[in-house]
Amino acid sequence: MIFTVAVDGPAAAGKGTISKALAARFGLAHLDTGLLYRAVGAKGGDAVAAARGLEPADLARGDLRSLEAGAAASRVAAIPEVRAALVAFQRDFARREGGAVLDGRDIGTVICPEAEVKLFVTASPEVRAHRRWLEVGGDAAQVLAEVKERDARDMNRADAPLKPAPDAVLLDTSDLSVEAAVAQAAALIESRLQGA
Ligand code: CDP
Ligand code: CDP
């Protein structure tokens, strides 16, 4: 079975949490595509060369979850050659036998426009910044400013900007628990699997 679930949306909307739960529930492979950009940003130096030479060990670094790594990721993610270098790996992953969930910014629009299920997971900037602050701590106002800055950079870049695919289902998690958000996403997948 080839079955792709594309999960896109802004920072700390809950994409990764929902994707992991869906992958476990439906027995699908999961790829957090943000990790690819975080790893390229963290390598420093020539970002295009880093993207072309990305290795599994680069994705295992422990420092990829920080706010700084997120900011560096979104800067290198605006470089078209960096994005191009990462496309084939993501497409192959998306169309692997057995099915896959990929979360990121451009999965439903660029990487896998033919995905059987497309979710656009969102929440207000304040809710998302609060979630991120619970994870990383520090100055809450600064976390909110960084979330907004990254959203703006991701939405306004020329290549693969963050936006819902025309056929994506919107899931606003501002007032939803993780369990409720996963249940809504799972119901959508069930219905598409039955129709497939
Ligand atoms: O992948 P993305 O940056 O979109 O978000 P995440 O890494 O899944 O993190 C979102 C954080 O918000 C996690 O700590 C979740 O426990 C929490 N959360 C959520 O994901 N979904 C909700 N409906 C409520 C809270
Ligand atoms: O977990 P969070 O949503 O905070 O960030 P992430 O998914 O790890 O993504 C980090 C950055 O990588 C984003 O702000 C985007 O600039 C970039 N990214 C992208 O351009 N395309 C993707 N498919 C995934 C991430």
UniProtKB/TrEMBL annotation:
It holds the Pfam family Cytidylate_kin. Its main location: cytoplasm. The keyword Kinase applies. Residues 5-40, 63-190 form the Cytidylate kinase domain. It is found in: Cytoplasm. Gene3D superfamilies: P-loop containing nucleotide triphosphate hydrolases (3.40.50.300). InterPro entries: Cytidylate_kin (IPR003136), Cytidylate_kinase_dom (IPR011994), P-loop_NTPase (IPR027417). ATP binds at residues 9-17. GO terms for biological process: pyrimidine nucleotide metabolic process. It is an enzyme of class 2 (transferase). It catalyses: dCMP + ATP = dCDP + ADP; CMP + ATP = CDP + ADP. One of its GO terms (cellular component) is cytoplasm. Keywords: ATP-binding, Cytoplasm, Kinase, Nucleotide-binding, Transferase. Its EC number is 2.7.4.25. The keyword Nucleotide-binding applies. GO terms for molecular function: ATP binding; CMP kinase activity; dCMP kinase activity. SUPFAM superfamilies: P-loop containing nucleoside triphosphate hydrolases (SSF52540). It comes from the Bacteria. Belongs to the cytidylate kinase family. Type 1 subfamily. This is Cytidylate kinase. It comes from Pararhodobacter marinus. The gene is cmk.
